[in-house]
Design goal:
The chain is α+β, with helices and mostly antiparallel strands. It has one domain: Gcn5-related N-acetyltransferase (GNAT) (Aminopeptidase, 3-Layer(aba) Sandwich). The protein contains 6 helices and 7 strands. A 7-stranded mixed β-sheet has the order 1-2-3-4-5-7-6. Strand 3 and strand 4 form a beta hairpin.
Length: 216
Amino acid sequence: MDVALRRMRPEDISQVIEIEHEAFSPGWVGTQFRRELSSRRCRFLVAYLTDEDDAPESYVPAEAGSPGDSSMWGRMVRGVRSVFGGSGGEGGDRLAGYVGIWFQGDQAHITEIAVRESLRGRGIGELLLIGTVRAAYEQGLEEVTLEARVSNFIAQRLYDKYGFNEVGIRKNYYADNREDAVIMTTDRIHTGAYREKFSGLQERFFERYGEVSIEI
């Protein structure tokens, strides 16, 4: 898997905002990433491409596709870069997705998790979830919790796979269409049963996608 995971940096904000706008409805209230990056109560992790050839088009040198390049190739390259954000095309990491986590009491609460539409279905969302649980372990927290749209069955299946249980409903939670949210929370993650489950899921993930660098 030509993707790695690390903490979000200030220079990632423009690409993260692009992913946020792509993933969520126009009624979504944008996150104040720069302010929250400095808070010890929250953490953002980003998944980024480690192989240039993993982009929608094969990598070409930075000078190709520059504003002065009017060739068909140059126009195509600029189009590819627009998908991944300007910083990704100028030597920075090309971001594939991100997750926001708040540390509240004994819980790690996932505030948002999103993957670029063109890169979905490749295990990136699962990698972000693995990073979240690892961050919860690092912080000594007991549970991981989140809200998901009641209609988002794909996401709910992934969360169920990682031991999240439905514990309630938030009525009219989403501002765009007043859709309800299902509240999902893991069992206590420090129990032997959950640690064994999580370890096995990680092993199967790495068997399928290969070893992945994870820095939380």
